[in-house]
């Protein structure tokens, strides 16, 4: 599983469109579709109902999307935490005294 | 940031060695080192003190590792959740009635 695959399904869910999601992620639509198919194959779960317009997640897809959002949020939090460490906003060096 | 970069720093922290971590991850040691350097550059944080033998995380690295372990655990939980959905262990279809 790739982090960007989670970002792609979140983008499709947000945009309700593979084309707009691809634009949002700055990749081609075939690449986005392929990556999402790879994730669906890895999880053995169909995340989106492609027959509907606009595209909607399946019931199982909704549950996967909820967890994917949590993981991506944790990754963003790690990056934010690293920026805070770089700006020395956190008293990390005080931990040495613990 | 790549999920596998988080897995690599966890492996080095567990094995206390880049060589053993590479073996554990089934990749070459130069690939592992390069991926970890990429992550350190992305976060602008030195995660490991390479002067020490056995290798140890820096103080900032320990904080990053703690968060990385949380993210990787969430990813494993998502995969486990998908397996449960596939085995219909979760009453997902009942949600349609909600």
CATH class category name of chain A: Mainly Alpha
How many distinct domains of chain A? 1
Helix segment count of chain A?
A: 4
Structural class of chain A: mainly alpha
Considering residues with a beta carbon less than 8 A from a beta carbon on another chain, report the largest interface and each chain's count.
A-B, 27 and 28 residues
What is the name of the CATH superfamily of chain A? Answer: Winged helix-like DNA-binding domain superfamily/Winged helix DNA-binding domain
Counting copies of identical and different chains, the oligomeric state is homodimer
What CATH calls the topology of chain A is: Arc Repressor Mutant, subunit A
Stretches of chain A where pLDDT falls below 50 for ≥5 residues?
none
The counted number of beta strands of chain A is: 2
Order of helices and strands of chain A: HHHEEH
Lateral strand order in the biggest sheet of chain A: 1-2
Distance between the termini of chain A: 37 Å
Shape descriptor of chain A reads elongated
Work out the helicity level of chain A. 55-70%
Q: In the CATH classification, which architecture of chain A applies? A: Orthogonal Bundle
How many strands, what sense, and barrel or not for the largest sheet of chain A? 2 strands, antiparallel
Q: Name the average pLDDT of chain A.
A: 92
Rg of chain A over CA atoms, rounded to whole Å, is 17 Å
Strand content of chain A: under 5%
